[in-house]
Amino acid sequence: MRLQEKKLPSLNLARKSGGKYEYIEVFLPPKGAGPPLHYHRKFEETFETVDGELKILLANEEKILPPSESFTVKKEEHHAFLNASDKHPVTFRVKLTPANNFETSMRIIYGLAADGEIDEKKGTLKNPMHTALALDMQDTRLVHVPKFIQKFMLDRLAKKAKRKGIDQQLIKKYVK
Question: Over the chain, what HEC string results?
């Protein structure tokens, strides 16, 4: 999970849609990238470029989305995204269907970033429990990390964090 901006992206609250979907608007600077190749089991994502060009990497192909074009990544489909330009920023929207705890996780991640809980060199959360919780809330599975490690390490860390009430502490601090 990489975090390049400390500014919270624009969000459309899932509760406004009755849980049917949620929107997030993302800004990536030139050469900026999102998380590494990953997938989600519980929702699909529709990417739509607002300004600039977004590159979506799939298992066997690349898609370049100019402004106003969209592309849907299905559940379980391996993907990553990045700014297609090394000179201009890109702004894009992602519609997640159905809504998942994505908004909550983003508010927590950006809150932690604002509090200095990001490893600036790596662009990742410093606390492994926070990372595990964020990945769990986003239903994100990383392609390059073996499944058994994700199941036994990240899933267990997320469960341990929940048992300790860390998820509720983060929600109380950054979401409510």
Answer: CCCCCCCCCCEECHHHHCCCCEEEEEEECCCCECCCCEEECCCEEEEEEEECCEEEEECCCEEEECCCCEEEECCCCCEEEEECCCCCCEEEEEEEECCCCHHHHHHHHHHHHHCCCEECCCCEECCHHHHHHHHHHCCEEECCCCHHHHHHHHHHHHHHHHHCCHHHHHHHHHCC
Question: Mean pLDDT of residues grouped by 10 in the chain (176 residues)?
Answer: 53 75 89 90 96 95 96 97 95 93 86 88 86 93 90 92 97 90
CB 71 within 8 A of CB 65: yes
What the block records as the tokens of 34 is 């999102």
The topology (CATH level 3) of 1-176 is Jelly Rolls (2.60.120)
The model's pTM: 0.85
Give the angle subtended at the CA of 172 by the CAs of 171 and 176, to the nearest 5°.
Answer: 85
Tell me how far apart the alpha carbons of residues 3 and 99 are, in angstroms, rounded to a whole number: 22
Structure tokens at 61: 């192909």
In contact, 135 and 129? CB cutoff 8 Å: no
